[in-house]
Amino acid sequence: MKPIARQLFKTFLFSAIISILVSCAYYAMQNKGLGEDLKSILPSLSESVAFLNIIIFVMSLPTLFLANPAYYNNLSIRLVLYYAGSVVFLITTFRLDQLSTQNKALYFITGVTFIIVHSVFYYLMTRKRGFKR
């Protein structure tokens, strides 16, 4: 369980850092020429992206059940436990009508970044352990 927990925490850290960078780039592109200063918005943008990553991290905690070999060896259960939390986050994001388009974009950037980083660690995990069918 320790390697999976460590991997999930690394996913959270890398995802948070990459999400903040991509969100800042998105903000800079959206507000180009409007006189908006990125320095003034950076603290609140970083904080909100970090909180979104915490939410996705908590939703991805069922990944820890993969320490059980019976769950890990079943491919369909492994994929559901590994990706369900972050996919449900993205689906929920698009279903919320209260969010503005800019907020949906920020949520989407954060969710997709988490899934990409999570997929890289999934590939490394399955390559290291090998498939047992």
Automatic annotation (TrEMBL):
Keywords carried by this UniProt record: Membrane, Transmembrane, Transmembrane helix
TM segment ranges: 12-29, 49-67, 79-99, 105-125
Protein name per its UniProtKB record: Lipoprotein
Organism: Mucilaginibacter oryzae
